[in-house]
Amino acid sequence: MKNSGMNGGGENLFKAISSDTRLSILEILSEGDKHISGLAREIGISVPVAAKHVKVLEKAKLVERKKFGNTHMIGIKLNNVYSFLDHFAENRRLEVEEGTSLLEALKSVTAVEVRKMGDRVKVVATDGEEGFYVYEVDGKFSDKTVDEYTFYEDTIVEWKKLIPITKKRLFVNIKR
């Protein structure tokens, strides 16, 4: 893997994810920031051992330390985790005629199930995997549906299945 500076380089990254304990730490932190002693307690290891594992994760830029006075909270850097995983996305090259729709291009490389919802066509499954899908063209979201978007120049399309990740949860109560 090319060392782009992201995630502290491949060596640090692979060292960071090569430990079940560090993977457990990342899993726990995906639920929210934790104090180092809380991490140690949840995993069943000592605080000094947890601190050593956190240092490895920090070096790989997968977690960050947030200081509040004398208290240090550890938080996961989800964007860096996702950036790392993007390196392993399936890549395909294809050639299409000018004016080909994204939907037709998708159908040429994968099994796509579409459903008409109102006046829009939505992809509801790719290769049998149901979900909500979005796409970016050259790093930007489009306001067109997959059947409306047509190609007139060379481009890069990133096809993404949205996986529910709760950033904020609101419990809304109506005043009565």
TrEMBL record:
Domain HTH arsR-type: from-to ranges: 2-96
InterPro entries: ArsR-like_HTH, HTH_ArsR_DNA-bd_dom, WH-like_DNA-bd_sf, WH_DNA-bd_sf
A molecular-function term among this protein's GO annotations: DNA-binding transcription factor activity
Superkingdom of the organism of origin: Archaea
Pfam families in the cross-refs: HTH_5
Name of this chain's protein: Transcriptional regulator, ArsR family
